[in-house]
Request: fold
Amino acid sequence: MSNVRVHRPFLSAVVIAAAFAAIGSLSACRGSHQQDANADAARSVYVPVGKWDKYYAFLSGGQAGTVLVYGIPSGRLIRSIPVFEPRAQYGYAIPGTKTYEMLKASGPLWGDSHHPALSETNGDYDGRWLYINDKANTRVARIDLKRFETAAIATIPNFQAAHGTSVVPPDTKYVIVNGEFLAEPDKSHGVDVAAYKAGMAFLDPITLQTRFEVLVPGNCDINDASKDGRWAFSTDYDTEKGLSVEDMIRNDEDAIAAIDIPAAEEAISKGEFTSMGGTKVIDPTRTTKKVLYMIPVPKNPHGCDVSPDGKYVAASGKLSPTVTLIDISKIDKVKNLRDAIAAQPEVGMGPLHTTWDGRGNAYTSLFIDSQIVKWNVARAVAGDPNYVIDRMDVHYNPGHTYAALGRTRHPSGDYLLALNKLSKDMFIPVGPSMPESQELIDISGDKMRMLLDFPAEPEPHDAAFIRVSDLAPKVAQVEQPGPDAIAEGKSRIEQVGPHEYHVYMTVIRSKFGLDAFTVHQGDKVTITLSNIETVKDMTHGFALEDYGINLAIDPGQTREVTFIADKPGTHWYYCTWFCSALHLEMRGRMLVETAGQQEAHR
Ligand code: K7E
Ligand code: CUA
Reply:
């Protein structure tokens, strides 16, 4: 195309006519190029009927307090996993259930989830757990990927706003969760501005108990850990300790906080901590061995990402057009921490997050420029001015971006997801609010190639992909019935107190173990249901009319709900998962007698 030039000083009519004809055929040619590109893109993301996607992408649901599971490359929504919100669909956190008790015990029935982090073994995803934060209520949850269910939720003591969340490689020794906002750890005496603290919490990966915390001056934003498990990093803005926007951005420099994990553990073992809120809190100004290194980086950095080779941690500039690459091996060796900075490439306006392809390239989201910029790490470190390799416009204003397996030691370098904050003209409006937008980009070649856009619920922040071939063998299809499971033929109702009943029912196509049971108004009723199906994909539901109860019971599972039978009369229960030709007939009655009816029986 570049050889077609019409900038000639003296053009005859013939030449002009010829030139227009050329432009005409040129645009026709461009049109068919576009069609070819579209067809190629479609082929790249098309997953034939009955075939699996290559990856499952776990997306934080943001202010939905949930996790969304998408197939990649197809962009198909596979499932959403409720975490910090009740969801009747899956019988999750319905009053009277164990999951309700778990969520209620940890705080409000809503959360704001930002950062999904997959558990690792040997520095690669092991498909066991997915961790997710709740910024609004300073919590973190562990999802059991065997069942795609929330298994544990814990509150982080002493801090406010659990933000950055990551695991310590190579074997998930800790889950690190940042306490972002400055606040007083002990609120029992009211407001205490002088006691404001923020920092990083190190959690047990199974129980989610906070093993220890390290105080960090400023606001801990996003975190990551070095591949050998030695260092925990956090971008740290508001080192001014300002409490207003103006004060938070006063200085031109903030920091990456680097915590020497073995030094912190040593401080704990030497008793160099204070006990606060039921955990051990290290003040890094009071330890014999240096625990905290504050590496200066420009103005209010945001993303914090360790390169797959473990050499660098990248702080994405946010208010600076740069990414600061810190040489991890130098942190405890240099006199002046500025000397640990390996490069500070300028990448564009509003860099937020950086991800990696495993071929030495980094990809940074540019919020203000609405782009993903691909740049070469070695070239930037060598001072080669040609470190930017490619730029791709995205639609619009990306926050996180994630290249497949980019957070492991072995990124696959095929797909990159841009998680865009605004969709503007991308979709048909849904009222004044617009769908959220995400775009899938092919990063396998030199040039990035746009493949697909697909909307998401508001609002995904971050993503973590896992290979379906790694995950699928770990996922339970039919559960082994637990010790609490009800055996076939053992459905019954037992009176367990003067005003208390326990109902036990098996569930199997197309029948509940009991066609009816009778209790009395005001009785406390517990219903335990065991799905005794032995084939996969045969989930049954249990909805109880006018009691606000719905459960989902997967093959082999036992589920329980407790409530007060305060509404008299006949209440049908029925199966909510379409299971068989007799699905509609799969129901029974809870008969709630009034006190008068009870008397009459005597
Ligand atoms: Cu950048 Cu909470 Cu990860 Cu959102 S944070 S974008
Ligand atoms: Cu069981 Cu529908």
